Amino acid sequence: MEKSSRGDTEPANEDWEVERQQLRLDLGNRMKAVRQACGFTLEVAAQRTGLALSTIHKIENGRVSPSYENLVRISRAYDVGMERLFSSDHEAHQTTRMTVTKAGQGRKVRSKNFEFEVLCNALAEKKIIPLVTRVEQRGPLKPGELEAHDGEETIYVLSGRIELVVEHYKPVVLEPGDCAYFDSTIRHGLRALGDEEARIFWACTYTDVAR
To answer: Please, are residues 121 and 176 in contact by the beta-carbon 8 Å criterion?
Structure first.
């Protein structure tokens, strides 16, 4: 019985690894295309983002997954909406102010510890980024694993159990139907608990209101 269980699991894990690598490559290619369209060399990109040149190079070549914080820093440094990083065919000048994403048809983006489905990607220069996110299991979050950036965030748990850690506050466990809203400038992080797939609706602002 135990042998059969492993046999059922291993192909699924292999399929996911292939998909994850493809997501990294797709994101890296788009980020490289946006950087080049801005006329930035790797050196200039590193200076503007504050990231190491080697980090940007690895992201563009699909060797590492950028964190959400780094995606924010890159989109700001390139002076583009984050949706430009998620779509290779995104039009630079769009007039639409309303868009709909049907269930399961958002653009998949792989980041460190998360898989995002980016919703309503056709609307340019949004103030809010709506995401459906699969949160991975990992050990208790350490201070160095928490991130901070400008903006605000809200999460609503769709399935599974989530631990939300926000600096200066006691960690809280969220279950389906639970919602949290917090200031993104305070260091924070998420992790999944238990065996059930953890999915959340996650809405983030990433532009500075005073900018």
So the answer is: no
